[in-house]
Amino acid sequence: MSSLSRELVFLILQFLDEEKFKDAVHKLEQESGFYFNMRHFEEMVTNGEWDEVEKYLSGFTKVDDNRYSMKIFFEIRKQKYLEALDKKDRAKAVDILVKDLKVFSAFNEDLFKEITQLLTLENFRDNEQLSKYGDTKSARGVMLAELKKLIEANPLFRDKLNFPTLRNSRLRTLINQSLNWQHQLCKNPKPNPDIKTLFIDHSCGQSQPNGARAPSPVTNALMGGLPKPAGFPPLGAHGPFQPAQGPLPTSLTGWMSNPAPVAHASASAGPIGFNSSNNAALLKRPRTPPSNSAAIDYQTADSEHVLKRSRPFGLSDDVNNLPVNILPVGYTSQNHGQSSFSTDDLPKAVVMTLSQGSAVKSMDFHPLQQILLLVGTATGDVILWELGTREKLAQRNFKVWELKSCSMPLQASLANDYTASVNRVIWSPDGTLFGVAYSKHIIHLYAYHGGDNLQDKLEIEAHVGSVNDIAFCFPNKQLCIVTCGEDRLIKVWDANTGAKQYAFEGHEAAVYSVCPHYKENIQFIFSTATDGKIKAWLYDNVGSRVDYDAPGHSSTALAYSADGTRLFSCGTNKEGDSYIVEWNESEGAVKRTYIGLGKRSVGVVQFDTTKNRFLAAGDENMVKFWDMDSVNLLTTTDAEGGLQASPCVRFNKEGILLAVSTNDNGIKILANTDGIRLLRTVESRSFDSPKIGAGAMVKPPSMGTFGASNATVAANLVDRVAPMASMVALNGDNRNLPDVKPRITDESIDKSRAWKLIEINEPSQCRSLRLPDNISAMRVSRLIYTNSGVAILALAANAVHKLWKWQRNERNTSGKATASIAPQLWQPTSGILMTNDISDRNPEDAVPCFALSKNDSYVMSASGGKISLFNMMTFKTMTTFMPPPPAASFLAFHPQDNNIIAIGMEDSSIQIYNVRVDEVKTKLKGHHKRITGLAFSNVLNVLISSGADSQLCVWSTDGWEKQTSRQLQIPAGRAAAPLADTRVQFHQDQTHLIAVHETQIAIYEAPKLECLKQWVPREASGPITHATYSCDSQSIYVSFEDGSVGVLTATSLRLRCRINPASYLPANPSLRVYPLVIAAHPSEPTQFALGLTDGGVYILEPLESEGKWGTLPPENNAGPSTASVAANLDQPQR
User: Fold this and answer.
1) Rounded Cα gap, residues 621 and 655, in angstroms
2) Whole-angstrom distance, CA of residue 237 vs CA of residue 1124
3) DSSP states along 1001-1054
4) Is there a contact between 697 and 384 (Cβ–Cβ < 8 Å)?
5) CA 1059, 1065, 1071, 1073: dihedral to nearest 10 degrees?
6) pTM exceeds cut of 0.85
7) For residue 503, which of 463, 472, 533 has the smallest C-alpha distance?
8) Are 782 and 849 in contact (CB under 8 A)?
9) SS3 714
């Protein structure tokens, strides 16, 4: 078929879709094979219409076309089979097995036998691999995510997943243009041509059947659409037959497919640009979760290859093999349709009430320290609460910092009434800044350094009149602030300097709220106005890309789910009607409207989302909850009474605490079981040091701490909107309140005198657990928690891996690693071990290394021999590659593409290896001894390497060229071993990193590798064996050859706690045991694990009554008052 004929099919598809001929549309899609409608496919899969699914697929591929197609059909038929078994319909299951699944036995007979054996089980969940299989709905959701990735990777679907960008009613437009041309050719053209048919050409002759006599086409469009509900009028054509003008683009995301043809500055210098033709196409699949690579990520835990073939071996089961994949991707982390959630997960128990003094207007929990609550009030007060102790850490009253710099209208307004209300408070993604929007012109930006340490950073006169909303965004890898106001404008400001970056105008009423978001490399902002209009903006000066109405023309706030894949809005119109809805981004239409909101006489209903699962709104003096997947009200709570008519509501990051405003100017804190447990761990302990009075600020640290305010977590805004746990003190100005300085000095002295280094010497002073082990013990060379936090993986010196898993039960409802409950040393039913290839060398002489895939399905590992890829569920070796020499000494996955691996080698080179095509893309040379550490930064797009030569190197991940290098500063009087390891790890801000060497811990700032701080331990502790950041980057855990573990404060590198070996190791004078490796739990900041020289693995946590390891040391140079340690040697040095 010619190109024009193909395009005609697309025009017909558009016409049929506009006329709502739904069945005809999909039939033509299938028969032509030109366009695969992913949305239609999703609906069929979700509804379990398996015959229709395969019939639709048949228009594009067959089972045996290629490995991708085979896996697509296999997954569908396998799911159909499992559902029949789940319904106890054995006859149907056998029929599916024989007719549908038998075809795959030719490729792997063992697979077919394994599937057949499920018939013998009363419940197929008794099969170990299917033990976590949830309900039908969640299973279909998991499979659908897998199928979409396979379809996108299948070359047969290439160029068939995106519908061409067409103006509305393009076919009608072309016909109108044709008729215009025919009309121009008439010898005596009539002013009002009468078009009666399209079957013959038009002529204005009297005797012609297609002549004149019709009303004016201005009011009677020639090609008007057939009657259809809720249809959008067609976009106009040209000439006398022009229909009525159509609306602006109606899709929430489709507007990004056609950016205006203007020149954009480069990413480093100005607004974000559409520099790639892929950007538009990427946004046509808004329902597909964002992916950072074209390659398919690890998705399943395979037990066998069904398709056996030689290399290249890709690191995804869709690329080279058809896996067993009886259990699809982990059900425990599924967002939608997950059966494990219940109303018990909602925080509904009132645990405390806080008194504010004035009406609460806005609240926000700290993204990292989840018991810190920021509150803004109607009188302009901003209060920071610590819920564990129910105390105010700090308070700021409304005050203009630089009144003389303000505009005359603002000065006049303040002269008349020096009061203002807080409209919004919000934390930055990493929790080091927060912004306050006031009802009069200005915003304030504060730097937060922990505890009660607030620092004035920026005051910006942002708008004329009220500043209605404020949010943080990250265009061009630069932290910015978005504001909107009564002056109908949206503005973007540099969060470090306060310079205005952009100003967007186009609303015809006051702008009520802003919602910045990020979708597949494109940053944008939604804005809503009080007249119910919703607009969208890119970071350029072109204008709004979307213009449509909120439900009921309401004042509406927009919010994404935590994973950034679902968009919701909630608002109230002038008539008092409220709406809470989910949007279908791809169509610009409301996907579902939630039922249960009442009518109100005043105020706008407020809402929040949590756990990618629940919605909550304050309405009718209560909190109402919905399941995101159901329009009906799930449950409500009045929080024991006293709530406002439309109370403010705010979840903390984990959704275990909920703050709700009350009628008497207070806040009630609601909690679920986990929230109550969290508060109990901290409520009995005192604060780190005496608190400064309200309104005062402590002196900021003298050193530059970590970075500038634009050094935040870009990955956080790439993957989801929810803030990433990161706590980096940002540099701000040094402005202090004039009456504070004497009190700061006095209290700093008091703190120095009161503070003591915490020494833990007894088992009763902490919680520790040695993990059970019945496998021969060899020293632990590598140790890591799984990303989900439910298991620990160790690699021993004999090349054997060990995996411990915790089970979810009544004693451990989260199922995460804990020192309170012993885990199971897990092995598959086959009894095999994950054992690395060791070639001909003694594994004791090798340098072991491993790296874990992001979804915990695979581990890549080496112990001096070939690199092995293991399946974490079955322990089977998927493949081996890269035989020595040289041997691998360190492994790191590329953060955007799991098929790209950086491999540090014993010969001092670094190989950038593409597993999919079995090819070394490039070799990096800059070290002189073996590579001992690798760390990627997806913010700076660099790779940091470290070696046994005590050198750090920075490599660009764009072209893999070397940018800079730095030699470690070995402390005076300390001698390093000739091949001492140097490890590197990035802070959560992806800009700062620690370098770990046996002589020191040092903090560097990338990419220039400026050494900001260096910490040298006391010699009595022996060399440092390993160190790691805690998951929140607040602490650094350091292990030593004397068996002790030190806990440092990450920002200052000051020792605050020492855990001596007697507190966790049994006494054995004849055996010298100490930790070789240390690993931090991925979500519990105070938990870490140790791998010991005797093969043991220990987990350590502080006592529940303490809730932390020691207290923060003073920020000045005063040492601890205890004489039990050589304090001076444990302090940071430069």
Assistant:
1) 21
2) 86
3) EEEEETTTTEEEEEE---GGG-SEEEEEE-TTSSEEEEEETTS-EEEEETTTTE
4) no
5) -50
6) no
7) 463
8) yes
9) helix
d(CA 897, CA 882): 19
C-beta separation of 380 from 419 below 8 A: yes
Long-range Cβ contacts of 221-227 (<8 Å, 24+ apart): 222/172, 222/175, 222/176, 222/179, 222/195, 223/169, 223/172, 223/175, 223/176, 225/18, 225/19, 225/169, 226/19
Q: 254-310, pLDDT tens digit by residue?
A: 555 444 433 333 233 333 233 333 333 333 333 333 333 333 333 333 333 333 333
CA separation for the pair 169, 11 (Å, rounded): 8
**Extended strands (E) in 554-629:** 555-560, 567-572, 578-584, 589-593, 606-610, 614-619, 622-627
- Do the Cβ atoms of 520 and 719 come closer than 8 Å? no
Q: What is the pLDDT of residues 662-687, one digit of tens each?
A: 999 999 999 998 888 888 776 544 34
Half-sphere exposure of 570 (CA within 13 A, CB side): 25
Strand 1132-1133: give its sheet, edge to edge: 982-986, 992-997, 1000-1005, 1010-1015, 1132-1133
Give the orientation angle of helix 3-18 with respect to helix 22-32, to 10 degrees. Answer: 160
Task: Report the amino acid identity of residue 979.
Answer: L
Crossing angle for the helix pair 3-18 and 170-184, to the nearest 10 degrees? 110
Q: Do 1014 and 1133 contact (CB within 8 A), yes or no? A: yes
The model's confidence at residue 859, banded by pLDDT at 50, 70 and 90, is very high
Handedness of CA 1014, 1019, 1025, 1031 (dihedral sign): negative
Predicted confidence (pLDDT) per residue in 934-954, tens digit: 999 988 999 999 999 999 999
In the sheet with 1054-1059, reading across from the earlier edge strand, the strands are: 758-760, 1054-1059, 1045-1049, 1035-1040, 1024-1029
Q: What are phi and psi of 73, to 5 degrees?
A: -65, -35
Q: Locate 814 and state its tokens.
A: 């989260």
Does residue 312 have a cis bond before it (omega within 30 degrees)? Answer: yes
Instruction: Look at 365 and 718; give whichever has higher pLDDT.
Output: 365
50 within 8 A of 303, measured Cβ to Cβ: no
Residue 863 binned pLDDT confidence (cut-offs 50, 70, 90): very high
pLDDT at residue 601 in the model = 63
Q: Report the SS3 class of residue 518.
A: strand
Q: Which amino acid is at 218?
A: V
Which class for 791: exposed (0-12), middle (13-18), buried (19 or more C-beta within 10 A)? buried
Residue type, position 204, single letter: C
Per-residue b/e over 1115-1130, b at no fewer than 16 CB within 10 Å?
beebbbeeeebebebb
Sign of torsion, CA 50 564 370 1044? positive
Beta strand ranges found along 595-738 (DSSP E): 606-610, 614-619, 622-627, 633-637, 649-651, 657-661, 666-671
Tens digit of each residue's pLDDT (9 = 90 or more) over 526-561? 999 999 999 999 988 778 888 888 898 888 999 998
Contacts of 397 (CB under 8 A, 6+ apart): 379, 380, 381, 695
- Residues 6 or more apart whose CB falls under 8 angstroms from that of 408 comprise none
Whether residue 971 is predicted with pLDDT greater than 80 in this model: the reply is: yes
Q: Does residue 717 register a pLDDT over 60?
A: no
Q: Please state, in angstroms and rounded to a whole number, the distance separating the CA atoms of residues 1037 and 1025.
A: 11
Question: Alpha helix locations (H) across 375-520?
Answer: 408-416
Which residues contact residue 1072 at a Cβ distance below 8 angstroms, ignoring those fewer than 6 apart? 1093
What pLDDT score does 728 carry?
Answer: 30
Structure tokens given for 1088: 């870490």
DSSP tag of 723: P
pLDDT at 744 over 50: no
State the pLDDT at residue 185: 79
pLDDT digits (tens, 9 = 90+) for 197-219: 888 888 876 555 565 443 333 33
Task: Please tell me the predicted confidence (pLDDT) of residue 339.
Answer: 39
Angle at 763 between CA 760 and CA 767, to 5 degrees: 90
